């Protein structure tokens, strides 16, 4: 079992893809139970993900306490498990429309959420509709609002990379999924998981140094660097491992479950 840390968190923020879920996008029963047990000890548990609420509302969030708070949209939004918006920072609506039009013209595809619904380009609609997380998804043409906190761009090519990197009024991350494919996550300027974590902490009466965060990708860098105890998965980029307090194994090997169970047992023995 992974060695327990001596750090006793008052809050824990958990990345979703590649951290809470494995390469098959599955959320194990053991993870569900350990989250419940940690919550019972008084530790505030929530996700910190680049996914929009609409992407995780049916599969991930039901396993957290109803009153728990979650960072979604790469730091663009804080919501409850039931979807109540506590705080958000939206991308300029005119720019969103321009981004969608230009990306699709260049051969890419987009995904974004508003409220409880997810929208995506026609070219990827069937793939998203068949996602195992039972997502309520519609074609982009069905969207009636473009007040969004996150725009994800997939099927990217050199022209799309050049275009997105040329826009200075946004925050963007070029990331890789579990299959190695590249995609962009785009938020309002200055938004990241750390900026949202400061607000998450204030809502819960905590300080950044009171919390633990677990992640595995480049968009976790600022958060992992600044919390009281940063933990990263074994598949994380080297840059992320260098700023973490602890590197654990891989999600497919149950590394997060082992680590959190170890933490839980230690906290109980010192409670």
Say which CATH homologous superfamily of the largest domain is assigned: HAD superfamily/HAD-like
Biggest beta sheet attributes: 6 strands, mixed
Name the structural class.
alpha/beta
The Rg value, from CA coordinates, equals: 18 Å
CATH class of the largest domain: Alpha Beta
Strand content: 15-25%
Ends apart, CA distance between termini: 20 Å
CATH fold title of the largest domain = Rossmann fold
What series of H and E elements makes up the topology?
A: EHHEHEEEHEEHEEHEEHEHEHEH
Shape category:
globular
Binned, the helix content reads 25-40%
Pfam family, one: Hydrolase_3
InterPro entries: HAD-like_sf, HAD-SF_hydro_IIB, HAD_sf
GO molecular function, one term: magnesium ion binding
Give a short summary of the structure.
With 271 residues, the protein is of the alpha/beta class.
């Amino acid at each position: 079992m992974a060695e327990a840390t001596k750090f006793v968190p008052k809050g824990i923020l958990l990345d979703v893809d590649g951290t809470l879920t494995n390469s098959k996008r599955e959320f194990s029963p053991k993870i569900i139970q350990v989250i419940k047990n940690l919550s019972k000890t008084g530790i505030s548990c929530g996700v910190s993900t680049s996914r929009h609420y609409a992407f995780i509302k049916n599969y991930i969030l039901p396993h957290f306490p109803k009153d728990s708070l979650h960072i979604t949209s790469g730091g663009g939004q804080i919501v409850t498990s039931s979807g109540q918006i506590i705080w958000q920072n939206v991308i300029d609506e005119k720019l969103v429309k321009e981004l969608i039009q230009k990306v699709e013209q260049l051969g890419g595809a987009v995904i974004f959420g508003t409220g409880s619904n997810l929208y995506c380009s026609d070219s990827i609609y069937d793939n998203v509709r068949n996602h195992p997380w039972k997502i309520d998804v519609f074609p982009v043409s069905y969207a009636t609002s473009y007040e969004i906190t996150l725009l994800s761009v997939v099927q990217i090519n050199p022209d799309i990379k050049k275009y997105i990197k040329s826009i200075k009024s946004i925050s963007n991350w070029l990331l890789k999924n579990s299959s190695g494919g590249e995609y962009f996550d785009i938020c309002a300027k200055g938004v990241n998981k750390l900026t949202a974590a400061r607000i998450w902490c204030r809502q819960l009466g905590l300080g950044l140094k009171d919390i633990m965060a677990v992640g595995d990708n480049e968009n976790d860098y600022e958060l992992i660097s600044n919390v009281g105890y940063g933990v990263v998965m074994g598949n994380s980029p080297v840059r992320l491992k260098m700023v973490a307090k602890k590197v654990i194994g891989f999600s497919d090997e149950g590394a997060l479950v082992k680590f959190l169970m170890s933490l839980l047992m230690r906290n109980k023995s010192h409670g």
